[in-house]
Amino acid sequence: MIQDVFRLIRVLHSDRDVRQISLGLALGMILGLTPLYSLHNLVVLLLVLFLRVNLSAVILSWLVFSALAYALDPLFHRLGLFLLTGVGGLQGLWTTLYNMPIVPYTRFNNTILMGSLIVSLAALYPVYWGSRIGIVRYRETFIERLSRWRVVHVLRASTLYRWYMRYSELRG
Amino acid sequence: MKMIRWSGLVAFLVIVGLIAAFNLLFLDGIIERIVEDRASLAVGARVEIGKLRFSLLSLNAEIRGLEVANPDEPMRNTVEVGALGFDLAALPLLRKRIVIQRMEVTDLAWNTPRKTSGVLPPRLLRKLEREKGPSEAGAKAEERLEDCVLPDLSIIEDLKKGVPQDILAKVDLPSSAFLTSYRQNLSDAQRSWEERLANLPSREEIETQVAALRGLSGKRPKDVTQLPAYLNEVRDLQQRLGGLTRSLTTAQGDFQKEMAALKAPLKGVADLKAKDFNALWAQLGIRVPSAEDLICVLLGKNMAHKVNRSLDWYRKFKRFIHVARPGGGDEEPKAEPKPRLKGADVRFPVIHGYPRFLIQEATFSARPGVTGGADQITFSSLAGELQGLTTDPPIYGKPTIIRLEGNLAGRTTGSVVLSGELDHRRVPGADLLNLVIKGLRLDRTGEQGSAEEALRLKSAVLNVNGRLQVQGEALDGQILMGVREPRVEVGSGASLLANAFKNLGSFDVTLSIAGTLDEPVMGLTSPAIGGLSTALQNTLKAELSGTRESLKKVIDARVDGEVLQANQETDRFETQILGELSSRLKMAAVVPQGAQKEKQSLEKAKKGILPW
């Protein structure tokens, strides 16, 4: 995980496409917030691997949002239960889905899955755009400011940093 | 920048392939675990599978060594299945519906012993507790008939052997308490009257007053002028003596009233004896069993137990039946209990296609000659079929039909037929089960009965004709059991009853079942009850009459003796106090007579006719 953090920092500091990182964070959020062993996560995995998204961002986001999902579990349950049983207008839809082929295997009728999937789908776009803006701002302001810090100069001048850079170059 | 990563697609396919391969490789184990857990939760005891083989290509499965533990007896299996094979329908599986087109169950056996306990592991026990609905938690089978026992008759034997005095010494009798209380009252009265006597005018005081009055006769006035003073003195003395006499007379009256009240209860000696006898009988705990008790212990208890267990299984089975009309009209979406991080699965109505679970056709055959004990039926052959067992009867549209036929092993050519129709297509569901057993030979000749067993049907040929109808929650059923050639073994604790069963011929017992699934009510009737009652009464009358009489005599003698003693003590006390009071009154009574004469002579003197 630490390696992924370093990789992500390196990617943030590089000139890689911001969209790759933010999409990775958004898709990792779906993996993290929703129960892992669900059919929809196969689709997410396909997107993660098929689209050129940053895998470190996906893994980091998945881990962070998994921890968040544990805390939000009761909220997901309540939201899922409300959507599945409390909204009269949706009953026909759920019943039809329940009686369709393949769809029952998605476990859409599970309260936590439904609640977390709805939350993560609703948060997908804001997380994507939020992280995109955040990364651009980070690159424009924070890296510039950081490079001016004396402590960074000292670190960069240190033997340890030189060794690390050489090791990184060797690994490519 | 290109957004597509083609190598990612390959990676995805590899990952999906690996997951699929892993699942296929361990599919048998995964299904086995799921089936074991689900079935264990449904049964409430361990369900174990010896070996499961599932073929994804042909969609068939074979289970060997299936054991279903008995929730009430964890070291026994309710059912053991040697082999079970079934074919699944492919299309319903796409909709997550399990439709077993054909199932073959062979080598069935009941009530077989287990090597390990069948109690659920803690993991499943916790889950079971979570999943239990309130109605299931409150469901209680009718236990009244199942709990029927004979009263302890050994006490009658002990009574016959025992010495009445010893028996009486061990029990608290009302007469003892009464006499203790009586003696206490007598003692209190004695103490109080001794105190009162001390406060009443004493002999010395009376003597002093009498002497003073008598002394006045020697001090008669010499002339008339002294006469008034003399008369005043006489009057004072007379008044004082009168006061003493009155207080003594009042005390005498009080004493007589108190004694009458104290002695009154002693007159009810006859009641006391009867009370003693009743109390003795109650304390000895002698309860004469009724003929209904006898039939209940002999057969009804066992029948009720079997009916209750069957109802338990029926309740478990019914939990899985979802009643909904096609179109989902009357089944509300239902959320199951929610464990942390797993959520709850909401069940929606199945509106078309296949039910969630369906066994279209199943055939059964039992292991020949297998028995789990004397109570169990041994078959030389048993086979049957089941059609349309489903969780969603309205979707399936047909009732469940069950028919099981078999021949009994043993000397008689008996047979068993279990047939039924379970129809839950509409609300309320209507289920009907019929059981006919002909010529079932019960033989426990070589079997040692337990020490507590007072009565045991040692051997008989039984014919059973049972019918149970369940309309929604309401039960209506009747089991008629014909008992031919009965031989009853009477335990050591109830040897007195041996005579009552000596001439017991063939008889019938009817167990009626009513009430609801949660609160069944069972009643037991038998034409044998009348004959048994008479025999029982005669037996007990003969056995108990001598004992009762001798106990009554001892009680009579004991109560009479103690009451006599109490009477004597009372009389002594009464004589003592009354004697003392009378004696004092007598002393005081002498004087007024003398004083009267004195007064008369003084009156004459006043009139000038002085005697001196």
Q: Short summary of the structure?
A:
Chain A has 172 residues and is mainly α. Helix content of chain A is 81%, strand content 0%. In chain B, the strands form 2 sheets. Chain B has a 13-stranded mixed beta sheet. In chain B, strands 5-6 form a two-stranded antiparallel sheet.
Can you walk through the features of this model?
- The complex is a heterodimer of chains A (172) and B (612).
- Chain A is an all-alpha fold and 172 residues long.
- Helices cover 81% and strands 0% of the residues of chain A.
- Chain A has eight helices and no strands.
- In chain A, helix 4 packs antiparallel against helix 6.
- In chain A, 32% of the residues are buried.
- Chain B is of the alpha+beta class and 612 residues long.
- Residues 326-330 of chain B have low confidence and may be disordered.
- Chain B has 15 helices and 15 strands.
- In chain B, helix 8 packs parallel to helix 15 (528-606), helix 11 (269-284) runs antiparallel to helix 15 and helix 12 (291-318) crosses helix 15 (528-606).
- Classes of the chains: A mainly alpha (172), B alpha+beta (612).
Counted by DSSP, the helix tally of chain B is: 15
SSE ordering of chain B: HHEEEHEHHHHHHHHHEEEEHEEEEEHEEH
How much is the radius of gyration of chain B in Å?
Answer: 47 Å
Judged by helices, strands and strand pairing, the structural class of chain A is mainly alpha
The arrangement of helices and strands of chain A along the chain is HHHHHHHH
Q: Radius of gyration of chain A from the CA trace? A: 20 Å
**Order of neighbouring strands in the sheet with most strands of chain B:** 1-2-3-4-7-8-9-10-11-12-13-14-15
Specify the biggest β-sheet of chain A: none
Tell me roughly what share of residues is in helical segments of chain A.
over 70%
In terms of structural class, how would the helical and strand content of chain B be classed? alpha+beta
The proportion of strand residues of chain A reads under 5%
Give the biggest beta sheet of chain B.
13 strands, mixed
Please report the distance between the alpha carbons of the first and last residues of chain B: 170 Å
- Low-confidence stretches of chain A at least 5 residues in length (pLDDT < 50)? none
Report how far apart the termini of chain A are: 19 Å
Assign a percent range to the helix content of chain B.
Answer: 40-55%
The percentage of residues in β strands of chain B lies in: 25-35%
Shape of chain B: elongated
